[in-house]
Amino acid sequence: xxxxxxxxxxxxxxxxxKGEVAAALLRLGFSYHSLSDGVREEARRRGLPPTRExxxxxxxxxxxxxxxxxxxxxxxxxxxxRDIVDSIRNxxxxxxxxxxxxxxxxxxxxxxxxxxxxxxxxGRPGDATSFREFVDKERRENSRRGSAQQLxxxxxxxxxxxxxxxxxxxxxxxxxxxTAALIAASGGAPAARAPVRAARRPETRRYGxxxxxxxxxxxxxxxxxxxxxRA
Length: 231
Fold this sequence. Notes:
The chain has helices spanning 18-27, 36-46, 52-66, 70-76, 91-97, 112-122, 131-140, 151-155, 168-186, and strands at residues 6-11, 31-34, 82-86, 103-109, 160-163, 203-206, 209-212, 226-229.
């Protein structure tokens, strides 16, 4: 029997835990895709370092020149079965991906102070070094311009939400329960642990030490506790 497609899109603010959710889904056999991959490719083409500020600026430029759904359109062609689509930051990207059968938008969030502390621990280039700077960066990532990042508006479109304010173990348990419910609702076979090939295997940071991610691109958020469904 053919598996019905299930495409889980991830959205949420900086350091909320999207990377850990994606890692849990990879361990269940999903394939990983990120809208940020196209932006990183553009940065390499222009000879720019892939800092957070550069990626935001280039992503906004691509949306302005080629339409706000351009990054989602590029990824949509590669979606085949059970897929993760990370780094969804604009409502037009959600609109494009909702055209794919089996798409569900999962929002990941956490209290702002907690996200700031996680951001400090991971120490990625371009991350804020003070809480005030962290808040200012978030404000700029919630533009009213249709071609720019609109994280809060995108999060409001989520079909399901995870509040990521507890342990990694609790987060993985919630991700497994949500995934099992989605697969059951689609009439598909249960998800199982499986070896997965990721498009990229960059480094992530945890508590000041650099480690190699076994499964997905570079961010090191923390864990989650509560799942809420949206009608």
